[in-house]
Specification:
CATH superfamily of the largest domain: 5' to 3' exonuclease, C-terminal subdomain
Distance between the termini: 27 Å
Number of strands: 5
Low-confidence stretches: 134-156
Mean pLDDT: 83
Strand order of the largest sheet: 1-2-3-5-4
Shape: globular
Structural class: alpha+beta
Radius of gyration: 18 Å
CATH architecture of the largest domain: Orthogonal Bundle
Helix content: 40-55%
Length: 203
Amino acid sequence: MIYSLNGTLIHSEATFIVIECGGVGYKCLTTLNTQRLLPKLGERCTVYTHMLVREDAIELCGFAGQEELNCFKLLTSISGVGARLALALLSTLRPEQIAIAVSGGDSKTLTSAPGVGKKLAQRIILELKDKLKLISTPSSQAESDSTAAFVQAEQEGNIQKALGALAVLGYSSNDVLPFMSGIDPDLPVEEMIKQTLKKIGSR
């Protein structure tokens, strides 16, 4: 399994990029959001990859960040959501926008992606929300008293919504709560997610 590629970006089109590593060009299916984050042609970059194995082909998907990769894996685990549709979703919406839509039951936002109708959007929300049920508030043994109190006070508000959205991106509450404890609980959910991911990325 190829975990990531680090090399020179030598080609880019609407649906894929090519990264040269050690004289070999690797074609990666990707999203428009990832392409916006990549450098110019001829510069070095890193993408996190997922391999698609079918009877007639083996393809790589490449993502600028692990949050987008995690979201892609969750989307493709849903019945009726293939790799192309997941890539289309992640080209239209950022991972945190999909996560917020799922945690808030917002099917309208998901239908903004091409190929996603109302019924499929509702199925995505239903199946991913089942995964969110595994996310629970950590016990005082796992976290400090101040963090536990912080979560308890806000568990019905934006903190809980942000926790649910971050779960869609592959983070458990135990992973993210230490980074969320200093964030203003009155901030919008999307801003809380952005600040949390920024703190995680700088650790």
